[in-house]
Amino acid sequence: MKNIFINIHGFGSSGANSKAAALTENYPEHEMISPDLPADPLDCLEIIDAIVMENKNRPVVMQGSSMGGLYSLIMHLRHGVPALLINPALTPAALVRSRLGEIYEFSNGDSILIEQEHVDRFTIVEEELQKGIAEKGVNKGHVLALIGEQDELLDQNIMKSILRKAGAEIISYDNDHQFQGYDRISIADENVRTFLLKQRS
Q: Does the structure show a pLDDT above 80 at 1?
């Protein structure tokens, strides 16, 4: 049985992002689910949770980049689904707070004004993450984080500290936040390829 990939894009991106394209190109025999998600993090989690539950009896592997990595990790903590995290943004409230008052442009042409309400919503999500890590952490071998050490957006020392506390496996790369060359890495890196294709009970 082939794994089903659920790709979760970052804030302001879309389901047609380069990370989804990489897996579709490299593993065409596997099903890909890659939804377009809204800006609101609680709405995102509701949509993703429904997708995971619809496929709960199927061999799902999640892949999330940036804010999508945060959502994917939360789905693992909720449901135990394997999750590949690419530069996960695990302190979202601070990231959004730093852009208060700015107009944020989305890849589909939409835009929003970043307001305190957005910070508050991301704080709720961050609290769920912290609670899940404190209470149970991740299942061994079920969470792999790919960290770009040249990330211009995230403090990777903080991200790695959170991931280590959770018990996730971490691989560091000389890469940026966009994680250039993922189309090659996703098939050429044996650790990543094995994680994506492994059949789990």
A: no
